[in-house]
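Sequence in, structure out. First:
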Amino acid sequence: MMEMELRPPRHRVAPRAIRWWTAQALVPTMPPALVLALLALLIAPARPWLLLALLIVAVPGLAYVLLMPRQRYRVHRWEVTDDAVYAASGWLWHKWRVAPMSRIQTVDTLRGPLQQIFNLSGVKVTTASAAGSIKIQGLDRRLAADLVEQLAARAQAVPGDAT
């Protein structure tokens, strides 16, 4: 049995991922703040309570929008070696995964609407593991496509037990 060196992955995701994660964070945080602000403008008798509610919603939302994307960028890393795929992710809870090439079953590209706007993609590596797939998010679209091809070719070339 071959031993693998356990170390953090070397490559960062694309810097544009910060803007993508910021846009993702704005989707759930902006509407409640906007509704409360509008109601505070329109309903004078309830204004103090609505402004208090706005403050309670907006301050944590603003902290989330400003801090989470940069923290994720610091944590998210990936690497592919001859032996394995490495991925580190998370922002509050950090997850570090290693998948040997011999355990890879499928490799897919993921591109949601916001990722497409920022010309980003994700790569999903499905393994023969109960822990589930490895996802590398926030990659440049072309790099992700090349990575999928590279991983598929390497996984096919490595004899193993994933089939």
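Second:
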Amino acid sequence: MKARDIVRARGHPLIQGIHPTTFEVTRDETLTLSGDCIIGVAADKGAADLDPGLKAVLCDDRAVLTTRLIAGGQTVEVRSRGSAALTLDHPADLVWRRSDFVSDRTVGIHADRVAAGLPREFIEALRRGEELVVELEAEIPEGS
């Protein structure tokens, strides 16, 4: 079983991309320096708005989530996992986490990349306000 969705956001001059355990995309229009995990603002979706088919797949402990972050002509791929504990009902935020912590904002756990691990050229493009396209593709591998 496989499902997809796309979230569109944009960068912001205060994007730092230095958080060691998460990264976040938010519907909020602005951010402060304390939001060091945020890599995209003014998103067209929060967790609650994701495609129902994608949400159904993500809420399975076997789910594998591949997220492609596209901005400034660069693509960064992030692999994470779904969880039966996900609620995916936050109206504004989408958060990928290195840990297995789950909240209403969490879309992926055990992420292989976090804000601090994103290429600095990618973060610079976001600081220039480039559009950020977030492609999410979740699947439950056959035989799992």
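Remark: The chain has a mean pLDDT of 97.
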